[in-house]
Write a structure and sequence with these properties.
single chain; alpha+beta; 3-stranded antiparallel sheet; 3-stranded mixed sheet; 7 helices; 10 strands; binds iron/sulfur cluster
Length: 203
């Protein structure tokens, strides 16, 4: 049996909003965001981010920020580091989410994520019938370079979730599981921010 091999079509779709789809998320951790902000300043690139994965800490009235996402509400509707001729212009230091793509982390519940395929990638769309029932072993074969990166992404995310749960177990924070949309929006407007970080993952 011939196993499918992932070949990026270099269409740039994953670096842009997709008309008709819900918000395109290109998540990045605070440390990744800082690196890209510095590069954007040096290159005079209009790079903006917005909070993405956040948890409301009702004990300290703080919003805990785990990830941001790249703002795409600009003229090109894309990541400002994308260039039509050359593709990603920060390839060497692009965020985990971009390194692992079209593999992504899918949220299963509040603190649990799993490695999944993003159905919006054009390679995935073109090969959907073969990919839809692929198990982990097959994904590792098909996405030979991307799967290890997705695993690093997954491990970092897991450490961050563990850190939040540990802080909660130590009674230093209390994450609300049942906050109403109205209260959450109010908290987003009024509460201070605290970024949640873990040390650099070398594994
Ligand atoms: S960092 Fe690079 S790969 Fe990631 S969205 Fe921007 S241009 Fe695309
Ligand atoms: S959408 Fe998929 S095929 Fe197109 S550039 Fe992104 S990863 Fe490559």
């Amino acid at each position: 049996m011939i196993i499918l091999k992932y070949i990026c079509q270099k269409c740039g779709t994953c670096c842009h909003e997709i008309p008709g789809e819900s918000v395109k998320r290109i998540p990045l951790y605070p440390d990744e965001a800082n690196i890209l902000i510095d590069i954007a300043k040096k290159r005079n690139v209009d790079f903006k981010i917005i909070e993405d994965l956040v948890f409301p800490d009702i004990k300290n009235q703080k919003i805990l920020v785990v990830t941001y996402r790249i703002r795409l509400d600009n003229e090109t509707k894309g990541c400002p580091f994308y260039n039509k001729e050359n593709g990603c212009t920060v390839h060497e230091i692009k965020p985990f989410a971009c390194q692992a793509y079209p593999l992504a982390l899918k949220r299963v519940d509040a603190f649990t994520f799993q490695i999944d395929i993003d159905p919006l990638c054009n390679f995935v769309i073109a090969n959907y019938d073969e990919l839809k029932n692929a198990d982990i072993n097959m994904l590792q074969e098909i996405f030979k370079d991307e799967y290890p990166k997705a695993e690093k992404f997954f491990r970092k995310n897991k450490k961050l979730m563990f850190k939040i749960r540990k802080l909660e177990a130590e009674n230093k924070i209390k994450i609300s599981r049942q906050i109403s949309i109205e209260d959450f929006n109010k908290a987003l407007k009024e509460w201070e921010r605290e970024e949640i970080k873990v040390g650099k993952s070398k594994d």
